[in-house]
Inverse folding.
DNA sequence: AATTTAATTAGATGTTTATCTAAATAAATT
DNA sequence: AATTTATTTAGATAAACATCTAATTAAATT
């Protein structure tokens, strides 16, 4: 989950909290002092500090009835260093369903009976559709043009276009003479 | 000003925008694709992308009626590198009035005529008051205890406490015998 | 030329958030 | 023990924001 990351960025996504971090980078401060320096009431400072603390950026120690806050420089540097690492980047997309777009395109072009309502003209969408229809063919098997058309006709009447695009996008191979068709790899 | 920094952090302070950055780190995407992947409507994606663009994190190129967005990796790395540098830290506190706390303490303990309403018991506040009253003395001049008391009496009746604390905090020097008092440096 | 498609802008809505005052808590000074 | 002082919590309010639908713009396909 990237919840922690969001908390981190949210904590710093405020002008007054950034000022606090800048001040605490110099020395420790009490709530009262920060309130005076930023011209805010103490409860507001408390609120901001709790957000910074939630992100692990600051911590407090009690001194009498003062709460003295300090910047967690170590934590800050550690976090900052890995912020835009590949690991971090990948973690943000962990719970993204990468097939959602393909499913949507397929749904948009599919009729209830599974046939295609049309053949998309946009490259990206056409690819999605082609990857779908190519699943009808078994890798390694040699098909005649007639057999190919028969299979494609289950999706759309314009079998010629589908067949041509399949070959054009490299999803289906064709013997130079045009007699034999086959696919090479197991589709995802 | 730290306005740019705030814009940067605000841009990343949202789970969906972080996901978008993560996706765009892999390859370019159109608005439509991002909308499908994140299960949001295209206008929402447009809104998010405009925030990311405002922060300089992404840019768009037109391809037909598509807007293909890409991550500005160079800008991202440059910004990320300097995020918590000393320069950046200091810049956030540029427009903070560092004397505001001292002024507040002084105001809290000052009567309309300039005398003190009391002597604070808190270290930090006492220091502020002492730094204020010590301005009555000229560096280099030798004062008798009587002269010191006279000057301090203009602030508060308890001259003994003020005198003792001034010496205790090192703001005023005293000859071992207790006869001569002076200050060494020009106070701020 | 008419239609379709993708993106953006405008406007509406519900949620989050920054800030304040007032009340509650807790520790120190008198 | 009573009072003062600093912080935090609770509750209120206004501004900011994420999201949606509807309308507009602009480009491609038919």
């Amino acid at each position: 989950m990237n919840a922690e990351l969001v908390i981190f960025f949210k904590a710093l996504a405020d002008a007054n909290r950034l000022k606090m971090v800048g001040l605490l980078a110099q020395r420790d401060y009490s709530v009262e002092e920060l309130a005076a320096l930023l011209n805010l009431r103490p409860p507001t400072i408390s609120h901001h500090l709790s957000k910074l603390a939630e992100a692990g950026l600051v911590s407090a120690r009690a001194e009498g009835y003062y709460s003295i806050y300090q910047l967690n420089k170590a934590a800050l540097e550690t976090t900052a260093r890995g912020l835009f690492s590949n690991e971090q980047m990948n973690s943000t997309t962990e719970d993204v369903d990468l097939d959602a777009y393909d499913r949507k395109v397929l749904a948009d072009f599919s009729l209830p009976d599974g046939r295609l309502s049309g053949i998309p003209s946009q490259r990206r969408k056409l690819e999605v559709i082609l990857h779908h229809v190519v699943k009808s063919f078994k890798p390694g098997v040699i098909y005649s043009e007639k057999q190919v058309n028969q299979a494609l006709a289950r999706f759309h009447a314009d079998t010629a276009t589908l067949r041509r695009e399949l070959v054009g996008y490299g999803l289906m191979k064709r013997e130079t003479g045009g007699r034999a068709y086959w696919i090479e790899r197991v589709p995802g």
In short: The radius of gyration of chain A is 30 Å. DSSP finds ten helices and six strands in chain A. The mean pLDDT of chain A is 94.
